[in-house]
Amino acid sequence: MRSARRRMVDVAFVDDETGSPADDVRSGAGAPGSLGPPSPPSDRRIAWNRGARRWWPAAVGLALILVTTSVVAEQRERDRMADLAGVPGVVTTLGDTVTEKWRTGDGPYSVLGTSTGLLIGTLDRADGSEAVVGLDANSGNPIWEVPVRPAGDVTNATQCTAPTEATQDPAGVDVVVCVLAAGTENETATAAGDPSLPATANLLVLDATDGTVLLAEPTDPSTTVSSAGPNLVIGQVLSDGRYQVSRRSAWDTPARWTFTTPEPLDVDEFGHRSAQVFATGDLVQVESWSMSTGGGARSSWVLAADGTALRSPAATDSGGYGVGFTVLRHGQLLVASGSTAGTAYATLTDLATGSLFRVDASPFDPWPDDGSLDSLILAHSLTGDDLLAHDLAAERTLWTVPSPGSSGAMVIDGRVIWAEANRLVSIDGRTGETVWSTPINKPSTATDQSPASTDESSTSTHTYVSASTSTFTDGRVVLLASSDATRPLRLAAYRLDNGVELWESTLPTGVWLDEVAGELYGQSEHGLLALG
After folding, report:
1. Phi, psi (degrees; rounded to nearest 5) at 328
2. Which of these ranges, 26-40, 356-370, 437-451, has the smallest mean pLDDT?
3. Which are the contacts of 449, defined by CB distance < 8 A and separation ≥ 6?
4. Where is this region: Disordered (predicted)?
5. What is the C-alpha separation between 140 and 105, in angstroms, rounded?
6. pTM over 0.85, yes/no
7. How many Cα neighbours within 13 Å face the side chain of 257?
8. Got the DSSP string for 39-82?
9. What is the pLDDT of residues 381-432, one digit of tens each?
């Protein structure tokens, strides 16, 4: 019986880490004298597939990370835009251009406010008549109209206000309140001129939704009205010369409070007393000027939300005028202006903390302001050549940058953006470092679409050197409106993040832009343009 013979051969192991046989065996496989046959092609595919099974989860994970990051960024941007939509002064999302949705043609229309899909304003017609008109905000069609001045009566004057928020009376009625002055009362002429003062006046209250007259009664010709959010503020000179201010939750409710000046107002050269009342946030201001050929006097009061006087008239400064007050930050900051030896200054008081400091500059509120730089106060230098930022907590100037010719600024996402005569600038509000700067004056071809123009195809090429500029934003772009009053209004949109110009458009000559409740409108002597 023959014994079984065994043959010993080399064995090639597949390395799980590499998916291939050991190098020393692979190099000899299939060669003459080698003990093993060549590896079939399928072995390599199997090894590659094993490697693929190890890296494809990483690729999928990377893709998921990228998708998740994109989704998170998009959601963050949606949240940001939703937050900005509630910021006063921020307009609705702008497209690739600004187009006209509708226009009125009866004459200048001054927007007072909005109410349930209506624009509320006063319309001055060419024949001298005036009316309070409610327009459909979507079409511009008049919904109601109440005449307040007849044609040809140039002696009548109208002052109207509409609450900026829904009224809080039990009926929930939005109202328009007007003081209609009529007739004239001629005073004795002096070196200051020959004045014509109102002889009589009426207080008119309208339902803003349909124009129904809710009240029409005589009032003193000195009466002024203003809105304080949902409240109504009324001021008038009393028979003894003192000034009385009352704040009401609604036109037909008792006054929440009443304030009367301790002393009569100063009189002007004609023996006349007058004052204006207006509100910022919860604070109400009273300003009285009495001008004369020999100079003048100024009396200012600032009243708190409960009607108590936070500030009262102080001694006049070296110029002969009293100290005036400005309320900033929606009623959180009080600014008192003054001068010493001919040098102007401002004293700032934080009403929340009581801290007080002085700046040799002119503070102002940015518009719009998303609150991302609430610790800073912006101010123009007294020469008007620089923009300064003051740190409220540290009570010091944080930075100063050149800003010749600028008149205001906006604050969005921690950046301060403003327009100068030749450029649009964005800086980091925390450091003062320039983020971007874009030239804005350049040759441009524009078509004059003015209603007064008979040639609709007339074009002109010119370089805009604007007499005035204004800026608007929807949170993604900065819209610059440049006007020199004699040419079409030039509009240009720039990216908020880098200043790159996206598009350019024009509006008719004589139009200037305004923002009302987040919508853009063009104002002119010919009428109102709704833009979108």
Report:
1. -120, 170
2. 26-40
3. 456, 488, 506, 507, 508
4. 1-42, 435-462
5. 10
6. no
7. 12
8. PPHHHHHHHHHHHHHHHHHHHHHHHHHHHHHHHHHHHHHHHHHH
9. 888 889 999 988 888 899 999 998 777 899 999 999 999 888 999 999 999 9
| 8 A C-beta contact, residue 117 and residue 149 | no
- 113 touches 225 (CB < 8 A): no
Residues 116-170: tens digit of each pLDDT = 889 999 999 988 899 999 999 999 999 999 999 888 776 678 889 886 654 444 4
What does DSSP assign to residue 386? E
Which structure tokens are listed for 459?
């074009």
Concatenated DSSP letters of 139-177: T--EEEEEEEE-TT-TT-EEEEE--SS---STT---EEE
Strands 309-311 and 255-260: unpaired
Which H or E run contains 24? helix 23-26
Mean pLDDT, residues 238-260: 90
Extract the tokens encoding 372: 């991302």
Residue carrying structure tokens 């009623």: 331
The Cα–Cα gap between 161 and 122 comes to: 10
Q: Using DSSP, how many helices (H) and how many strands (E) does the chain show?
A: 2, 40
